[in-house]
Amino acid sequence: MEASNIQHVSTYKIKISGLVQGVGFRPFIYKLAHRHRLSGWVENRNDGVVILMNGTEKGVELFRKEILDNAPPASDIESVTITLDSDRDLQGFMIRQSEDLSESVTEISPDIAVCPDCLSDMKSQPHRIKYPFINCTLCGPRFSIIRDLPYDRPSTTMDVFAMCPVCRAEYENVEDRRFHAQPVACNRCGPAYSLDEHGFITESLNELLFKVSRGISKGNLYALKGMGGFHLMCDAFNETSVSHLRSVKERDGKPFALMFRSLSEANEYVEINDEEERLLLSWQRPIVLLKRKKPITPGIADGLSNLGIMLSFMPFHYLLFDVLDTAAIILTSGNFSDEPILISNGEALQQFGDKVDGIISYNREIYNRSDDSVAMVINKMPQILRRSRGYAPAPIRTHKRTEGIFGAGAELVSSFAMGKGNHVFMSQYIGDLKNFETYQFYQESYNRFRRMFRFGPQLLVHDLHPDYLSTKFARDLSQELGGIPLLPVQHHHAHIASVMLNHGLDGEVIGFGFDGLGLGTDGNLWGAEAMVVGYRDFQRLYHFEYMPMPGGDKASKESWRMALSYLYKCFGSGFQELPLPVFDEVRERDVENIRNLIDKSLNTPLISSAGRLFDAVSAILGINYRATYQAEAPMRLESMADRSEKGIYEYEIKDGQVYFQPMIRSVVGDLSAGISKERISGKFHNTLANLVLDLAMRIRKETGLNRVILSGGSFQNRILTGKSYELLSEEDFEIFLPDRVPVNDQGIALGQIAVGAANQHAL
Ligand code: ZN
Ligand code: ZN
Ligand code: FE
Questions:
Q1: Cα 613 to middle of ligand 3, angstroms
Q2: Most buried residue, 77, 137, 432, 501, by CB count within 10 Å?
């Protein structure tokens, strides 16, 4: 920008709000101003960043544009407002010491993957050669080390490390890349890694890296302290190590995530399109679910067509890959089944000490736990499936005032959320609350969020299910706080409302809530709803036929039970004579037992659920009878599907209910006729996508609504969601999928807040 003699120079005040603190925003403005030879200053305020500068109207406008175009990656600008200030004489450009280092820095940055500049400093800066905790104003740990606001070194777990004179000088120099980088550290003064091999300690980093790389090649297993918790690690191409790791993790059959050295090496095993590449390389560095294109070591993701891949996000990962022979390691969360991921060195030693060959940890405390986030791309749209490291606790900006509203979330895949002004702060992924330690993690995180974000609860929204531990938490909290109002919200209403708020929608939409189950307003279990939804209320227009769920909860894990339920309904007594593989798997006694439960309605609730239909078809085809992890049967069924299949099965719609007897009969017929499971699965997916379109058309005809939302765990299925999306777009529907929150139950808390905000004054 050139100073022009013709144009009038005035003093302008530029206010920038959003996530602009702790992400390198002031140094960015400083450099920008210097490049353009502008005079003035920049300062952190409670509610964002303020710039005062002299310039022409046009110059200031260009400056604004550059800010928006080139802002630091982890920043998230909400608004830029420019006002004319009283004319002042300003000399040079500087970063002003904040006058008010207070209270109200309202946002905390998520953890940020190490940046390219730091990676190159790690090779050239004398005091940071191979320094595994290198960071700058643009990158490094944030949420995982913050105890409280304001975000300042003393309120982080870096407080125990005194800066050396060199680091201090960088920290205080406004022109340095590490100006006010709170976790600044170097080889002389910062945290360090160590390796513990059954009491034999290695502290030299070079020696540690050498030992670990040799160990990995030999097939060793390690616990490695990461950003938000421990990982378990081994060579991804060593079958013995992989199966050893499986046994250490205990009965957990979940697929393992892999970390690859490079994009190109990952590309040998999985397909990566442009959007997926962008996600893999984003500063959040989530695990991205990618379509496998050639076989990988057995035991990693058996029976699944997707692989979870991530790239290095900590300096240590880069240093390790520099010396490793293998192109990929398994990096799976360091926990047992449903327990939270471990964060303390002591716990890691206690729990993994005799199960792994070594523990690689470091002497800085992880304060806030976070798992790796998981994302995928459907029809070019990024979807977040687990929102944790790199995403939490960045606020979700909404167009509604949500002050004081708490959303307690669901239960199995839980997360809570708090409304502050028009922001919603959603917790990191918490997990299954039925696990005692996980519920403690939930309670602890609630208290921390409340304190950090100065949250004053006024309305507590929870799921309609009275037995969810999140419901119990809300009730207890209400009592504790002298009876603040509670609001129960139906599960699928919350699923749809979360996507509405995510996209700033108002009015009514057509909502499909497909998942495993959620308690319905009629006391039955729901999970396959076609609804008309507004924030305040909803109307259920269509749903899958109610089916007996023999054994209740057990049927959620043992998919053969739902298979028998559907077969019995379709074929009546004698159904066990059908030539199906499921009858080789299930004992005659169990078949009799199921029949008995259904006939007498013993421990057999009624359920209308997409998830359970997937289970049934998966078991009828002999793909999966018992889930060793959540949604295994549907995931395997999806993986099996022939995507080129065009056929569709028949179903019936009568009085608002969808009946699948014709489909189940054809599935059994096709299987007996020798049609491949791949084709049958493909046809089954086509049928459901077609059904979504069919129901959407009917509802549009009845109501005139044209916006469609797909939400609930079943829409994590890329084929179902992808095909439904295509079919709906061809008929000119406007379709919305969540992009800020997961489509599964982790997104429920946001929906609860949305419904709470709409009903608040009616209470
Ligand atoms: Zn950096
Ligand atoms: Zn230092
Ligand atoms: Fe759900």
A1: 15
A2: 501
The residue range of the domain holding 453 is 385-491
Same domain, 600 and 468: no
- Cα 315 to ligand 1 centroid, rounded to whole Å: 10
Please give the distance, rounded to the nearest whole angstrom, from the Cα atom of residue 127 to the centre of ligand 2: 7
Residue owning tokens 């399109």? 273
Looking at the fold, whether 651 and 606 belong to one and the same domain comes out as: yes
CA dist., res. 742 & res. 724, Å (int): 18
In a domain, residue 705? The reply is: no
- In a 3-state reduction of DSSP, which class is residue 391? coil
CA distances from residue 370 to 97, 342, 415, 713 in whole angstroms, order as listed: 32, 10, 12, 21
What is the enclosing helix (H) or strand (E) of 172?
Answer: helix 165-172
Q: How far is CA 666 from the centre of its chain?
A: 37
Ligand 1 centroid to Cα of residue 74, in Å, is 11
Distance 751 CA to ligand 3 centre (A): 11
CATH number at residue 432: 3.30.420.360
Count of structural domains, the chain: 4
Calculate how far, in angstroms, residue 188's C-alpha sits from the geometric centre of ligand 2. Answer: 5
Residue 375: phi and psi, rounded to 5, are: -140, 165
Side chain identity at residue 174, one-letter code: V
The total of other beta-carbon atoms located within 10 Å of residue 642's CB is 16
- Measure 580 CA to ligand 2 centroid, in angstroms: 68
Q: Which-ligand-closest: CA of 169? A: 2
pLDDT of amino acid 595: 97
Q: Which ligand is nearest to the CA of 126?
A: 2
* Residues linked to residue 331 through DSSP beta bridges, in sequence order: 233
Place of tokens 């006729």: 673
Q: Please tell me the distance between residue 531's alpha carbon and the centre of ligand 3 in angstroms.
A: 15
Give a yes or no: residue 269 inside a domain: yes
Whole-angstrom distance, CA of residue 556 vs CA of residue 315 = 41
**How large is the average pLDDT for residues 481-497?**
97
pLDDT tens across 332-345, in order? 999 887 899 999 99
Give the ligand with the smallest distance to the CA of 158: 2
7 with 56, same domain: the answer is: yes
Q: What is the spatial distance between Cα 607 and Cα 278, in angstroms, rounded to a whole number?
A: 40
Contact 571, 577 (CB under 8 A): no
Q: Residue-wise over 705-734: b if at least 16 C-beta within 10 A, else e?
A: bbbbbbbbbbbbbbbbbbbbbebbeeeebe
Ligand in nearest proximity to the CA of 166: 2
CA 211 to ligand 2 centroid distance, Å: 26
Cα of 163 to ligand 2 centre, how many Å? 5
**What confidence tens digit (pLDDT) does each residue in 127-149 have?**
999 999 999 999 999 999 999 87
Q: How far is the CA of 496 from the centre of ligand 3 (A)?
A: 10
Between the CA of 44 and the centroid of ligand 1 the distance, in Å, is 20
Same domain, 334 and 398: no
Q: 250: pLDDT confidence band, cut at 50, 70 and 90?
A: confident
Q: Are residues 429 and 336 in the same domain?
A: no
pLDDT, tens only, 558-612: 999 999 999 999 999 999 999 999 999 999 999 999 999 999 999 999 999 999 9
Strands (E), 323-434: 328-333, 358-362, 374-378, 381-386, 396-397, 405-407, 417-420, 423-426
